[in-house]
Structures are given as structure tokens and as C-alpha cells.
Specification:
The complex is a heterodimer of chains A (514) and B (499). Chain A has 16 helices and eleven strands. With 514 residues, chain A is an alpha/beta fold. In chain A, helix 2 packs antiparallel against helix 3, helix 10 packs across helix 12 and helix 10 crosses helix 13. The longest helix of chain A is centred in the C-terminal third of the chain and has 22 residues. By secondary structure, chain B is of the alpha+beta class. Chain B folds into three domains: 304 residues, no CATH class; 112 residues, no CATH class; 58 residues, Arc Repressor Mutant, subunit A, CATH 1.10.10. Chain B is built from 17 helices and 14 strands. In chain B, helix 2 packs across helix 5, helix 11 runs antiparallel to helix 12 and helix 16 crosses helix 17. The radius of gyration of chain B is 28 Å and the shape is elongated. The termini of chain B are far apart. The chains are: A alpha/beta (514), B alpha+beta (499). Chains A and B meet through helix 10 and helix 11 of A and loops of B.
Chain lengths: 514, 499
């Protein structure tokens, strides 16, 4: 019997359509896989097999009645815990929201349900999406399926690892400075950050409102595109949502995978993303991918983004500033954790004790940083200057996109590092986002796809493509074009080459939620 | 609460120049809240008019109420302000349990309306021009109720309850520039300014403008500077002033209180003060320094508000007439004497009269009700007439008089019952069986009975002593328990004398 968890979402959709499998079978296969490996990987914070199987059975009934909700009806989906759900706890990886049940679904979750997708559970993440390793989760780290002693990237390490470990065919993530793309790079999967405003943020627990964007994680470009088609588009609940009519991203991916699609494509290679900070194996695979693109008829040109030098610094002012305000609502008054003080205490004392006990160190670090950056007398020097850098970076991109169709960079400087290795060095952790942050600052889309394995450590690396705002379809097409060439070379997706991991090693963790 | 020592008002004016400034918050009467689809309704079960947005639940996002923007633009235009082609919301960050997100979405450096001017008329007809610095949009906070403790204030309370029904109600905050030169008129100007704002928002139909419900709230900034000094004194900001009369009293009180302290060599603390209607005094609130750090930054969840020139032109064309112009028109339409009209204006009852007349009462009848019976009841209860009854309710009573259902005495009785909340005028008439007896048969029977008791009356009338009828009318009214139309009784008695 074939292992249903090894199939892509597109393949599963086809099998569901031709009746060769059922949603219950597909869902059960993934639940079994989760039961078998997630004690080790810890990609999920919450799984509810009954709920998933009920949704799967409902899907099968619809299909039997000839009324599937979409082509993807019945395909399972993992959901990052930053997205609120009515039937599963939503903690955003934080103690302060332990067990919290939202009275409403995030718009992307509603759309996934309306398309008949079957939620498998909520995936682990750095607390409030602050981190690049998922080690900052209040519920213990997620492990990298390629090497369980290593981090899966972050903040969406749970969604990436779930997809990489075949616990889910695809997953929802959120990307504020690389939280979808960097874990994709680290786990040999695909991750797409859409144009700011193209996917609703309603129900995504806010980290930094002007940077956050929800997007898909998967093992293939087509699957990411299929999921993006489901979740994308205007939402009246999100004022920053774009009213554009979007093309089908799945069609763009399918067209891009056709031979000859890369001919005449102008790819800009950003000079700033090379050099010492970048691991040799990362650069080797990156250059090979560029050669492959060139061989397929693409024109590779050098471009410069002079202001990206300041991107990380600007990002780490804008993000904490917005986060310090967004996270103020976690005060114990209306929802979530409440510290109990002997003698009761005043409301200020209870708020303070709750925030002290409920937030982890990285969250506190950024709240303090952001509060400081917004303070009277410092605002102009910090937040104000950071916004100016943001404008300069946007101009850099405008300038670059005047002469190229897409930009290409290595997604992140290094492959997966060991758990704990950078925990005491926040700056080293922040530097991991050097190539992903500019897209968030400029609001443009970015996709990371696997470009191979670093020879020196056998770990996956990714290549990132960036396109002008609203040109998400272009990214799917280009990424699918390169992916087709790489798959031909590898004989299939990169993750089929991942070594088996030892499931006897259990992750120390506290389970979030009910 | 012990009243502070106060300096005589005239003495205070001799020594100091009062300097004023006002922040008036207007709650807009939109159907839904500023940033969510929750109903914008007064009252209701606590925490029933809420959505995830008003509760600041994780993941929720604000969406601007277009109607609130239109109302704000109209108000800005009525205040003579310029309307910003692009204005932005900002977050005002501070922790307080009535603030669901622990930040208030307001406008900071880019308000929707700025640089305006309002003409305010004093009771003697003088016009004072008040410069408006800005009018900006923001959301209201929830309402805290402190349980336990003696004062109902947070200090000493055992616990507090919070109702988020008001959280997110749309507000426009109107900020004046510093007002100099009001001198002894300062208290009256304060009242007249707020009354003018109230008239404007009522005329625009954008707010219920009921001060006792907090639809219209005034923070009065008062400072004194010694005569001959250039530097401004330290100001206090008096809050919780929820009637026109209180605005006047609070400003007068602060002038007298500050003058006393300054003349004793003391210093004024920059703070908010709370007005207490019962004691007629203010008490210290929280210290307020110019260095309060709200860490304002542009609200990233919202786009700039960019009203088109067409929309602004459309709203400008739809503006109601200016208050002064309106007064001229109403006086002419109603045919009031100068004295009658000034009486209405000074009592702040113009809008009530308009409402009463538009509901069908004659202008004179409306005037008599509001400046007579209603003012008397309000005065006795130490309330504002507008808090007691609406124009439509008054008109309903008057219409019953016009229809001959009620006589004057009964009408006053019904009015009191309406004010007491016993129902509509017609319901009360039915419930109490108050209608005038219009059946001549019943009246004639009572008249015959009265005449039998006072046989000489008819003779006296025939001799020309018509006033003798009074004794019979009185007896008939008594017999009918007041439910007779006295004029009709008189007619019937006179008819009988001529028979």
C-alpha cells in the first residue's frame, strides 16, 4: 500500500477526485504519522483526531453527494498557532494564552474550512512569532526532521517541520521577517510570503502589523499556490487588505513548470547577499540554481540594494515598537492567563505579575526595546529613522525591479544550527533574517524553495525569489520553473532524500492547550 | 467632600486673568461603533454590544466606520475648520482596564479637521469668537464600576466591573485654542461655548448630545495669571462636567479656588480635577504633566483617511445653517418677542422648542411648557430640563390639550407623569382616566345640582354679576373631580341664566 503521507496536496486532491482514496483515509494516515513521529519532532501544539476525522467524514459525504466544496476538499492542513480557531486552542506559542479558545476563526481558517480542507492541528512556533528557531516557544522546541538535534527554523518551525516530516501535506504560516521562508530553507520545504495585503491578517495574532503576512508552507510550489488560492483575496475585516482581483496562482505554478517558461526571464542577483556571513554550501547551491536558470534561458544580472545593509537594524526597531503595542492587550483582564496574588492585589499588580509570568524572555526583550524606541524624545531617532530606512529600501527595490523581473538571493545565511547554539546570542539569531527582512519592510512577495543540500553538513538550503508587490503569480511561475529542473535532477522533491530520524528520542515539552 | 477655601469671584477677577481652554468630546450616533460592527447603543446588558474588535481579542483588527468619518467631516466644516485631504489614526498607548487593547485608536499629529472658529453668543447678545485648534476622531473607552468602598471610586473599592458596550463608540474631540480675555464672562462663556457645540451637533444630527448620558463631555482647562504677568499660570483640567450648568459652575469654582491658593502664596498642581455636582466642588484627580508619554505612533492596522474633494463639497453643501442665522430665522418664524426669544436661548432650550414645534405644538405653547412647568420641575429636582423630557413628548401632551382631551391642570398632571416615566401621554390619560368630561349631559346634571345648592346665583348673573358664575363653576369642577373643561362649564351656566 502506498503511504498517503508521501503525496503532495495536489496528488491527494486528484486521488480524492478520482475516488481512489477518501479524506478519512488520508486524514487518518496523517494522524497516524503524527502519532508516530511528533513525540520526537514536536511540530504540533494541539491535535484533535476526532475533530479532524469528523471534518474528513463530512468531506467524504460531500464528495459522495457530488458536491465537493473545492478541488482541495478533504485534503488535510496544519495551522500555525498564531491563527485563531474556534475549535482548537490558540496560544501563539505563549504561556499567557495557554488553553485560550477564540470565539471566532481567522479569515484564512474560515476560507480553508469553506474549501473543505481538514484541519489537523495547531503547529508550534516561537512565542508570538518572535524568533528564528522555534526554541522560544513556551511549549518546548520543534526539532528538524533532517537532524533532530537541530532547529527547524522559526518562527514557523512547527508548520515547516510538520510538512518536512510528512505529518501534513501543507500548512499555514505567518511571515513578519522570514518566519515562513527561513524555516522552509532550513527544512528543505517551500514557503511563500505573499504581497502585504494580499492575504487577510484578520485572526492572525499580531506581532508587527505593518510587516505580518499569512502564507502557505508545503513541499512543492504547486501546493503552496493551491493553498494561496484558497486563503488569498480581499477581506473587509482587514483594512490593509488589497482589493485586487488575483490570478490563479496554481495556474501560474503549472504554467511555470512547463519547459521553456524561464526563457527570457531577467533575474537580478543581489550583490549584498554573499560574502563571509554566508555558509559555503548555501552559496554553492545558490550559484548552481542560477546556472540552471541561465541554462534554461534566463538572463542573470547583478543588482545592488544599497540600503538593505540597514534592514535588520530598522526591522528590529519597527517590529518591537509595533509589538510592544500589539502585546499590551495581554493583561489578564479579558482573556488568557491571570496571575493570582496573595491578598488579591491591585489591577496594576495583577497585570504586571501576569505579564512577568506569562511572557518569555525574548518577548520581554522586544517589548522593552519597542517601548523604549517609541518613547518621547527617542521616537524620531529610532522609530522615525527606521521608517526612513524602510522608504529607502522600497526605493532600492523599485529601482531594481525597473530592470529585472525577479530578484534571487540565498534565503538565509546558514543551514540549521544545533538546538541551543544561538539562544544566548540574540544578535546572531537576528542576523539570520538578513535576506528575508527586506521583503517585509517593502511589502513585496518572496518565496523560498529548496535548492539542494549543503555538501559540508548534508542539510538543506533554499533559494529565495522576490518580485514587485502584486506580482505573486510571477514568483510561483519562476519558482515552479526552477523546481521542475531541480526535481528532474534529484528525481523528486528534496524531502524524499531526507534521512529517517530516530523516533525514540522524545522532545521535552509542555503541551499547550486542552 | 470638604469644599476648598474660595476667593470671592469679583476679587479673584481683580487680581487674576482667567485663561481657558476646552476639550469637548462628542459621541457620534452612528449605527455601529468606530472600528467594529457592534451596535452603538446606550444601555443594554453589560458587554452585550461587543465584537472581538471592541474586546481587543487576539487577532482582531479595526475597520473605520465610513459614516463616522462623514460625520466628523461635517462637524469639522460646521466648526469652520479645514479638512485634511489625508489624516491618520495613531495609537495612544496606556494601560487601563477600560481600554480593551491598552491603546486607544485616536488621531495625533494628523487630525481630520483643524483651524476653525465658532461664534458664541452670551446672554446679553454679545458674540465671542472661540478659535478651534482641531477636531479629531477617536474611540471611546469602556465603563468601569467600582464596587465596595464608600465613594464609588477606584480607591478603596473591593473590585471593579467593566462594561465594554461603550468601548469603541465613535468620538470627535474638539480642542479649542487658548482663550484669553473672557474675564468675568469666563464661566458664562464656558457654558455658552458648550451649548453652541451642542446646538451644532444636534443641528447636524450626528449626536444625541445628551450630556447626562455622556454623549457630550467637556473637559474645562482653567488657569489664572496675575494681572500684568505674561507667563501663563499652571492649569487644571476639570472632568466629569455633565451639564451646561455644571460647566459654568465648575469654571467659576476653579477660578475662585485657584485664586485663593495663589493669593496665599501656594502653587497650582497640574492635574485633572473631578467636578461633583452634589457638592458643587472639584476634587483632585491624577497628576497630569506635559511629559505624559503615550508613545503615539501611526496605527499600522489602518490606512490614512483620504476623503475626496467631492465628498467634502457634498457635505459642505448639506451643512445646516449657522446657529446665529438659525436663531434669527426661528425668532421670525415663531413670532416671539425679543424677551421671549432671549429667555428660550438663555435657558438653552432652543433645540427643545424646535423639536416640540416640529412634533406639532404651537411655538407659544412649546415655549410656555419649557420655560414654565418643565423649568420649574427641573429646578426643583436640580436637573436640566433636557434631561427630563423630549420635545416629542411635550408636543404629545400639548396636542391632547389642543384636542380638548385635557385641560391645563390635567395637562400638567400628565406632564409630570411622563417625566416620572409612567408612559406616553396617551397611555397615562387612559390609565388614569384623565380625559375631560365633554358630555354636556353630565355637565348639565352637575350644574343643576350646584344651582340647587346656590339658588341665588342665576339671579345675580341675570342682574349682570357674571362673576357670580365662578362659585358654580368651582362646585362643578369639584364634583367632576377636575375632569371638566372649565370654559365649557362657564358657557353652560351662562346659557342657563339666559334661558
Amino acid at each position: 500500500m502506498t503511504d498517503l503521507t508521501r503525496h503532495t496536496a495536489a496528488e491527494l486532491a486528484a486521488q480524492l477526485a478520482d475516488g481512489s482514496t477518501t479524506s478519512v483515509a488520508v486524514t487518518q494516515a496523517h494522524l497516524d504519522r503524527i502519532a508516530a513521529v511528533d513525540g520526537t519532532i514536536h511540530a504540533f501544539l494541539h491535535v484533535n483526531p476526532e475533530l479532524s476525522l469528523a471534518a474528513a467524514a463530512a468531506s467524504d459525504a460531500r464528495r459522495a453527494a457530488g458536491k465537493p466544496l473545492s478541488d482541495l476538499d478533504g485534503v488535510p492542513l496544519a495551522i500555525k498557532d498564531v491563527l485563531v480557531t474556534t475549535d482548537m486552542p490558540s496560544t501563539s506559542g505563549s504561556k499567557i494564552l495557554e488553553g485560550w479558545m477564540s470565539p471566532y476563526d481567522a479569515t484564512v481558517v474560515t476560507r480553508a474550512r469553506e474549501a473543505g480542507l481538514v484541519p489537523l492541528g495547531k503547529t508550534n512556533m516561537d512565542e508570538f512569532a518572535m524568533g528564528s528557531s522555534t526554541e522560544h516557544s513556551a511549549y518546548g522546541p520543534t526539532r528538524n526532521p533532517w537532524d533532530i538535534d537541530r532547529i527547524p527554523g522559526g518562527s514557523g518551525g512547527g508548520s515547516a517541520a510538520a510538512v518536512a516530516a510528512f505529518e501534513a501535506p501543507f500548512a499555514l504560516g505567518s511571515d513578519t521577517g522570514g518566519s515562513i521562508r527561513q524555516p522552509a530553507h532550513i527544512t528543505g520545504t517551500v514557503g511563500m510570503k505573499p504581497t502585504y495585503g494580499s492575504v487577510s491578517r484578520y485572526g492572525a495574532i499580531a506581532l508587527a502589523s505593518s510587516l505580518d503576512q499569512v502564507g502557505p508552507c508545503s513541499r512543492t510550489v504547486l501546493d503552496a499556490a493551491l493553498l494561496h488560492d484558497v486563503i488569498g483575496g480581499y477581506d473587509r475585516h482587514d483594512s490593509t487588505s488589497l482589493k485586487d482581483a488575483w490570478p490563479s496562482f496554481a495556474e501560474a505554478a503549472r504554467a511555470g513548470a512547463q519547459p521553456g517558461s524561464l526563457k527570457g526571464l531577467k533575474v537580478g542577483v543581489v550583490g549584498q547577499y554573499s560574502g563571509e556571513a554566508f555558509q559555503a554550501g548555501v552559496m554553492t547551491r545558490f550559484r548552481e540554481s542560477l546556472e540552471m536558470l541561465a541554462a534554461a534561458g534566463a538572463e542573470i544580472v547583478d543588482v545592488s540594494l544599497p540600503s538593505v545593509e540597514y534592514a535588520v537594524a530598522a526591522y528590529y526597531l519597527i517590529l518591537p515598537a509595533e509589538a510592544s503595542s500589539n502585546l499590551a492587550k495581554f493583561d489578564s483582564v479579558r482573556f488568557g492567563m491571570r496571575a493570582t496574588l496573595t491578598g488579591g492585589g491591585t489591577v496594576e499588580q495583577v497585570m504586571s505579575a501576569t505579564r512577568e509570568a506569562g511572557f518569555g524572555p525574548e518577548v520581554k526583550r522586544r517589548i522593552i526595546l519597542g517601548t523604549y524606541a517609541l518613547s518621547a524624545g527617542y521616537y524620531d531617532a529610532y522609530y522615525g529613522s527606521a521608517q526612513k530606512v524602510r522608504t529607502l529600501i522600497q526605493r532600492d527595490f523599485d529601482h531594481a525591479f525597473a530592470s529585472v523581473d525577479v530578484l534571487a538571493t540565498p534565503t538565509a545565511p546558514t543551514t540549521a544550527w544545533k538546538l541551543g547554539e544561538k539562544l544566548d546570542d540574540p544578535l546572531a539569531m537576528y542576523a539570520q533574517d538578513i535576506a528575508t527582512i527586506p521583503a517585509n519592510l517593502a511589502g513585496i512577495p518572496g518565496i523560498s524553495i529548496p535548492s539542494g543540500i549543503a555538501p559540508e553538513d548534508g542539510l538543506p538550503v533554499g533559494i529565495q525569489f522576490l518580485a514587485p508587490a502584486r506580482h505573486d503569480a510571477k514568483l510561483y511561475s519562476v519558482a515552479a520553473g526552477l523546481e521542475a529542473l531541480l526535481h528532474a535532477q534529484w528525481g523528486g522533491p528534496l524531502n524524499s532524500q531526507a534521512p529517517d530520524f530516530d523516533t525514540s528520542s522524545r522532545t521535552q515539552s509542555t503541551r499547550g492547550g486542552a | 467632600m470638604a469644599k476648598a477655601k474660595l476667593m470671592d469671584f469679583d476679587k479673584a477677577l481683580e487680581l487674576f486673568e482667567p485663561v481657558l481652554g476646552f476639550e469637548v468630546h462628542v459621541e457620534l450616533n452612528t449605527k455601529t461603533k468606530m472600528f467594529s460592527s457592534a451596535p452603538n447603543e446606550f444601555g443594554g446588558e453589560p458587554n452585550s454590544n461587543v465584537t472581538p474588535v471592541c474586546l481587543g481579542l487576539p487577532g482582531s483588527l479595526p475597520v473605520v466606520n465610513e459614516q463616522a468619518v462623514r460625520y466628523s467631516i461635517s462637524l469639522g466644516l460646521a466648526l469652520g475648520c479645514s479638512i485634511a485631504p489625508s489624516s491618520r489614526f495613531a495609537r495612544k498607548n496606556y494601560f487601563y482596564p477600560d481600554l480593551a487593547k491598552n491603546y486607544q485608536i485616536s488621531q495625533f499629529d494628523e487630525p481630520i479637521a483643524f483651524e476653525g472658529k465658532v461664534d458664541v453668543e452670551l446672554s446679553d447678545g454679545r458674540i465671542v469668537s472661540v478659535d478651534i485648534e482641531r477636531a479629531h476622531m477617536e474611540e471611546d473607552a469602556g465603563k468601569l464600576t467600582h464596587i465596595g468602598g464608600a465613594t464609588g471610586r477606584i480607591q478603596g473599592a473591593e473590585y471593579s466591573l467593566v462594561d465594554y458596550n461603550r468601548a469603541g463608540v465613535p468620538l470627535v474631540e474638539i480642542v479649542t485654542k487658548v482663550i484669553y480675555g473672557a474675564e468675568a464672562d469666563a464661566p458664562e462663556l464656558a457654558k455658552a461655548y458648550v451649548a453652541t457645540i451642542r446646538d451644532i451637533v444636534v443641528a447636524l444630527g450626528i449626536s444625541d448630545a445628551r450630556m447626562e448620558r455622556g454623549n457630550l463631555r467637556c473637559d474645562a482647562n482653567v488657569s489664572l495669571r496675575p494681572r500684568g504677568q505674561e507667563k501663563l499660570g499652571t492649569r487644571t483640567e476639570t472632568k466629569n462636567v455633565n451639564s451646561l450648568r455644571s460647566v459654568e459652575r465648575a469654571v467659576r469654582y476653579e477660578i475662585q479656588r485657584q485664586a485663593q491658593i495663589l493669593s496665599e502664596g501656594g502653587t497650582i498642581i497640574q492635574e485633572t480635577r473631578h467636578w461633583h455636582e452634589d457638592t458643587g466642588a472639584t476634587s483632585a484627580g491624577r497628576p497630569k504633566s506635559d511629559a505624559d508619554d503615550y508613545r503615539y505612533f501611526p496605527e499600522p492596522d489602518l490606512l490614512p483617511v483620504e476623503p475626496s474633494a467631492e465628498l467634502i463639497a457634498e457635505l459642505r453643501a448639506a451643512l445646516p445653517e449657522q446657529p446665529a442665522e438659525r436663531k434669527r430665522r426661528l425668532k421670525a418664524e415663531w413670532g416671539f418677542t425679543d424677551l421671549e426669544f432671549q429667555d428660550v436661548v438663555n435657558s438653552g432650550l432652543l433645540s427643545e422648542l424646535v423639536a416640540t414645534v416640529s412634533a406639532g405644538a404651537s411655538p407659544q405653547a412649546a415655549r410656555k411648557w419649557w420655560t414654565g412647568e418643565i423649568a420649574r420641575i427641573a429646578n426643583a429636582a436640580d436637573r436640566e430640563p433636557t434631561e427630563l423630557i423630549t420635545g416629542a413628548q411635550v408636543a404629545e401632551v400639548q396636542l391632547l390639550v389642543d384636542e380638548g382631551v385635557l385641560n391645563d391642570r390635567m395637562a400638567r398632571q400628565v406632564l409630570e407623569a411622563v417625566i416620572a416615566g409612567e408612559g406616553t401621554a396617551r397611555e397615562i390619560v387612559d390609565a388614569k382616566g384623565l380625559a375631560v368630561v365633554s358630555d354636556d349631559g353630565a355637565l348639565i346634571a352637575a350644574i343643576d345640582q350646584a344651582l340647587a345648592a346656590q339658588p341665588d346665583v342665576l339671579e345675580k348673573i341675570r342682574e349682570g354679576k357674571v362673576q357670580a358664575a365662578g362659585a358654580v363653576i368651582g362646585a362643578v369642577m369639584q364634583a367632576m373631580q377636575g375632569k371638566a373643561d372649565a370654559a365649557r362649564v362657564r358657557e353652560l351656566v351662562l346659557e342657563r341664566a339666559q334661558a
